[in-house]
Amino acid sequence: MNRRILVVDDSEVTRAILARTLRRAGYEVLEARDGAEGAMAALREQPAVVVTDLEMPTMDGFPLLRLLKADPASCHIPVLILTSHGEAASRFWSLRTGADAYLTKDFQPAELLAVVSRLVEQAAASPPAVPLVGSDLQAIGPVEVLARVARHLDASLLRATVVNALLERGMAADDFHEAARGALETLSQVVDAQLLAVAVAEMQSAMAQVFLQDPIHPTAIDALIDRLARALDLPADTPLETRIAGEHGDAAVDLERTVCLPLLLREAIGVLAFLPRDANELGPTAISPIAALTGHLALVLDNARLSQRLRELSTFDGLTWQLNHRVIYDRLTEELERARRYRYPLSVVLCDLDHFKLINDSHGHLAGDAVLREGAAVLRRCLRSTDLLGRYGGEEFLAVLPQVDLDAARIAAERLRLGLENHPVRLPGGGEVRITASFGAASRDELPGSPSSDHLVSLADRRLYEAKAAGRNCVRP
Fold first, then answer.
1. Which among 140, 169, 188 is the end of a domain?
2. Which pick of 203, 244, 258, 351 has the fewest CB atoms within 10 Å?
3. CA 69 to mean position of chain CA atoms
């Protein structure tokens, strides 16, 4: 077992005390007077543990610590910070920068030896690094040490800048796709790739964002989406809502070279995928800087995803995923004001599923939930994209039809009625049930003056009861 300990301190007295204590415990002690000497000794001699002060001339303990933990030739060596600083900030920054332990110089010898013994065992259990040999070893002088520090500082600054840009773009986004696109655009500035993509899967839904740096053929994009679905292990019937940023074209791609990195998300699984332009960029040294950013990327996507879910929960009915009562009523009020200002017609259709209580009583509430979900989906498909649909309450739905007069509203309601009548609902326990509904339609032009939402819905409600009285499964007027 390697029992060499490198002591780095500008005080001869402190070095002497530490060396005596460690040698009595059976350790071989190497000494250095400052951070630069310490870095040279660590890279050349490969000690089991480095014990270093923080305040030293030429190069202090923090640059030494960053260099040792960032350089492949020394990142495996545990570092003990031993300093007169007892402040919480100094301890935090030391441990955050990579120190394995932190003691102040009022230590007891037994405490020091216990920490050093633990770190020596930790070093013995770590995979050995590839040592410097030949010309690389001879080149380790003060200038090379400072050059290595500068390179690692530049790499740290680049990473911090990219992380800041990721957080800035992502945290300002309104939804998952906007955050994902901003994050991928940021990564594209430091990753030489033909395409980048992120995908996230939750319980019953999945989303993906693709960013094309080269004009890629649509068939290759379809193959990429299939690859993302497999990476997320999506069930065959789970849709992957995908948005593409960038131009389509005919650029050749080899998707077998796609790199997929996992994203650690809360209550979801995610993946970052990118296709390097150069096949030689698939090595660990090329991928590791990108992999180091995945935690920050996951944070951005998590924040956007959960914020989007929160907004959706406040906007949509949780069962039918249509607008909830408050929002559909607010949107109706907005559309009424717009219709009054621009003098165009506006109508509403109130729908009530027939004999819904009988479905609950006969088949159970899970079957009732399935009927509400499927019924709402049918109604939505039968409406225009500009129409609004909300769950008004219970088994009632309200459709708002901008720029539609009463005759057109009656036709739209009949289309909704037929859609429900011709769509059997498959029940969770097996079998199916057919559903019908009654409809009441009303138009703004029927009411005098500037009718309110209450007035318009009240008129549609009266006609809905007329439809029920007429035998259900019909439209009134």
1. 140
2. 203
3. 28
